[in-house]
Each structure stands twice: as C-alpha cells, then as structure tokens.
Amino acid sequence: MTLSNYAMDTSYIEYIDLPIIPKELIPEAKAIIDLPIWGFDTDGGGYHKADNKYSTKKISMTVKDWMVENFNFDFVANFVVFNGAIPAHKDMRTSAYNYLLDTGGEDIKTTVWQGEISKEDYESYTGYNERITSGDNNLIALQSMVIEPFRWHKLRTDLMHSVNGTYSRPRVMISVTPIEYLSFPKNPETAKKFKVWMETWDKE
Ligand SMILES: [Fe+2]
Fold it and tell me: What is the mean pLDDT of residues 20-27?
C-alpha cells in the first residue's frame, strides 16, 4: 500500500479559487455578531438554533454588490455566526462556499463524516459534541481540517458535517449557496419561505 492510501481524502473540504473579498468592504466580526437574525435557514431542521448555537444575518450591501459583480454564478448568501460547536448534521444544499471572517478559536475543526446518526441524537444534540470527539458514534471521518480565515473553501453539506473545538469567541463567516447546489425543499412551507427569501434578496 502506498503512502497515498493512508492520506485522508481532500475532496470534501477544499480551498477554491474565488476572488478574495477586499477587507475594507467587510464589517468587523463584532458588528456582524450584533446584527439581528435574518435569512433563510439552509440547514435541515435548524435544530441547533434552539440553543442559540447558530444564527444567520443579512449580508451587508457592500459585500453583496461585490459578490454579484465578481461571481459568475447565481447564488444566495448570509453572514453566519456560530456560538459554539455545531454537531453533525446535513444542510438543504449539496455544497456551500464559505469564507471565514473569524475562526472563533485556534483549534476549531470542520469535519465531514460518512454515516448517519440516530433521530434521537439528531433532535437532542446535547452532549453529542462530546460523543463525536470521543468517537462514541456511528460516523467515520472522511476529512477533517482547521480551515484558514479569508480563504474561500467548498464544503460538502449533503453529508454529515460538524464544527468542533474550543471556542474562545464566536465563529463568523460568509456562507454562499450557489443556486445549483440547493436541494429544492420538499416541504411546501419551507418552499414558500425560500421563495419569499429569494424575492427579498433580489429586491435589495
Ligand atoms: Fe451545515
């Protein structure tokens, strides 16, 4: 067996070649944290919102205008704030293009997992973070990495993925969903919510 057989796969989390957003266009992380909650939740169920672990904020016009001008694909985007570890879950999108503005801590790792977790674990995630880190779960890590800030990366979000580590402050990012990566919501209520969000996004 060659050395490459032991290397972790690198196709689940990868840096991508999108233009870097000029820093002067981006609000301070603190200002983003203080914004009111806004946006469509592309995470299935949104269960981790219950504990204020995760919130989405309206992206600033300067950043939005810059992205519209510099990206040659249709997309929607939010600022996203994590207040703590995000347990394994799937999104309602196959992949996301993310751009970290503050990592939230030095050792915080994003992991994409093979496998599923029980419905009970999925719905009541208290303690699940600990079980992931202790290996007491049914998931096998496909790829795990400490992602650098201010670099675009593509993350597979139709597989279980989590963000774990020691948070010394909130983790703040820009999350872009190319329209082609949206798995269209089956639930009519969600579809309606999504339509309203898209219309609002287009108008502003
Ligand atoms: Fe997610």
Answer: 97
94 Cα to the center of ligand 1, angstroms: 10
Going from N- to C-terminal start, the domains of the chain cover: 10-180
Distance 161 CA to ligand 1 centre (A): 6
Instruction: Quote the CA–CA distance of 165 and 145 in Å, as a whole number.
Output: 11
Share of residues in the chain with pLDDT > 90 (%): 44
Overall fold of domain 10-180? Jelly Rolls (2.60.120)
Taking a 5 Å cut-off on Cβ, the residues next to ion ligand 1 are 43, 91
Å from CA of 62 to ligand 1 middle: 25
Residue 155 alpha carbon to ligand 1 centre in Å: 9
Task: Please state the separation of Cα 50 from the chain's center in Å.
Answer: 17
How far away, in angstroms, is 200 Cα from ligand 1 center? 23
- pLDDT per position as a tens digit, 72-81: 998 889 999 9
Convert the pLDDT of each residue in 146-156 to its tens digit.
999 999 999 99
Quote the Cα angle for 167-27-165, to 5°: 10
**DSSP calls for 17-50:** -PPPPPGGGSPPHHHHHHSPB-S---BGGGGGGG
- For the whole model, what pTM was predicted? 0.84
